[in-house]
Design goal:
Length: 556
Amino acid sequence: MESDIEIAQKAKLLPINKIGEKLKIPEEMLLPFGNYKAKVSLRLLNQIKENSEGKLILVSAITPTATGEGKTTVAIGLSMAINRLGKSSIVTLREPSLGPVFGIKGGAAGGGYSQVLPMEDINLHFTGDIHSVTSAHNLLSAMLDNHIHFGNQLQIDEREILFPRAMDMNDRSLRDIVVGLGGKENGPAREDRFIITAASEVMAILGLSGSIKELKDRLCKILVALDMAGNPVFAGQLGVCGAMAVLLKDAIKPNLVQTIEHTPAFVHTGPFANIAYGTCSIISMKMALKLSDYVITEAGFGTDLGAEKFFNIVCRTAGFRVNSAVVVATIKALKLHGGADEKNLRAGTIENLKKGLPNLKKHIENIKKFNVPVVVALNVFNDDTQIEIETVKSFCYENNTPCIEVRAFTKGSEGTMELAMEVMRVSEKSQSEQIYLYNLEDSIEDKIEKISREIYGAERVVYTPKAEKDIKRAEKLGFDRLPVCIAKTNRSLSDDPKLYGVPEKFKITITEMRISSGANFLVPLAGEINLMPGLAKIPNATKIDLDDQGVIKGLS
């Protein structure tokens, strides 16, 4: 089979206005970026507000391997299959970050015959949204240091600067740095840090804002520092919110593209699920729900990360109700959770597979905690055996959960038809009220502990002295009623990436907690998670090239 990029480069694309026509989007509402990408004007929201609302389908997964389990591929295939069955469907996805593209995980445009296109553009610079977020973020950082340099009228405590710098690349050397060296004219010397743009509070604000007014209001509420008396200093006090909003004025508009089968897709904003909340923008989902019968949206990593945050943060913010959820599983990942060698998962045995099945069960249970019906999508690879496939399906049926084989990668919509029919059936039957895991009135510790016990399966939560200090600070500043967005490893239900399967009698260690007052959530950090990833020993960047004719090779 050809590589992802070879398949993408051979695909015949429709002009983007033809994709807009399928959704009845007036051409004047499309702001084209070339022939195959377009921004959609926010004015469309007002035009379609009286439209009936479609069904919302959330795609999540079991605890993934380093290369992922094909959530995006399945989500795209599912949306294409629903369209093929005569209903309208839009897949809504996050924008890829350059960090994983050049790191180990690769791009985020799907794979094989289930991709969003143009794949090279989407995986690289796309419409410039992530650049805009990086620029707005670093403008705030520059204005903060500039204020201190020119007299510091706000009496900002240089030891209590809380807002980092950002860059869209994996670069561990920037995790802890010193700025302001070289003399007085370069500003005060102090410790600083970079985070990846996907973890930026500005990215979160962009994705969670429902309008330009809300965007500006949230930007002004970013907590940047404390003053000498311990009082909060917000971005609005630096007079920078308007300029930040100008940098984001186009970035807030959803990006319309197409799947390989010419069905519509929104790809907009890019927060990671392990170190942020992990879903596409609220605006793109709201728009999609008014334009189609079904909206397929993906939440990053396993149910313990993207899905939990989607229910407790995104649904709370936007008022969304999920009609059904899909949990993507692969035999290779289940073998890993059953003790197979990570470097050679294909050599794992049927016993490894059986021992790994409790991880799948835990993720099914996690979705059901929110009172949402679930379907398992078994993402089948060519070397999976029939006995392995039947083992997984039998296990699911024993646990009263439908399990459908999916071959979106090799067959596109044709390989996802059965899943589409089951998801539509379950979604139409779904009448139950979605519930949240915790109340906003719960204490910060109670929120963290409910997620840790109920979703991760932890026995207890411990807090470092720094975390305890951070929690007290949040309470003192009046931020204790915010939801929590726990940053932790995606490789385990625990905070230890080496604990596979369903760990028992483990503790979650909260090392610190950051306040994202503009995004309107708190970020407790669990274990050794870092908001600036590093590259792998042999990163994907070594496989990517440009030939003499300007054709990209090796991107996936």
